[in-house]
Amino acid sequence: MPEPTPRPTGSGPGRIIVVCYAVLALAATGRSILQLTTAFERAPLAYILSALAAVIYLVATVALASTAPWARRVATTAVGIEAVGVLVVGTLSYLAPDLFPDKTVWSHFGSGYGFVPLVLPFVGLWWLARTRRG
Fold first, then answer.
1. Fewer Cβ atoms within 10 A, N terminus or C terminus of the chain?
2. Which of 8-17, 42-51, 114-123 is least confident?
3. Could you write out the three-class secondary structure of the chain?
């Protein structure tokens, strides 16, 4: 019996996940550019991590929306890195608050973004697992 074909991750309810990633990519990009260009010396680590998060959100958006053969692996990697990133940065922002004087996308577990950055990677990983088989 042939192996079932994976369902596209950007179809059906996956469209909502793709839109959430796209909105976060835009928000994180805008905020990180502003912070990097106007106050870099205030919190360089926090702002660089925020820019990295923006890139990861962009990669996840494109990969989740794509039906290309490479897309599922890239999406899983990006969303997995995002999950680890928000947990590490969220914890670090409480343990070393002087490194995170301003809110960034992952600081305080994404509290400045309604905790969406904390929840979204786990929803994304669940969706990727659920759509693995057609």
1. N
2. 8-17
3. CCCCCCCCCCCCCHHHHHHHHHHHHHHHHHHHHHHHHHHHHHCHHHHHHHHHHHHHHHHHHHHHHCCCCCHHHHHHHHHHHHHHHHHHHHHHHHHCHHHCCCCCCCHHHHHHHCCHHHHHHHHHHHHHHHCCCC
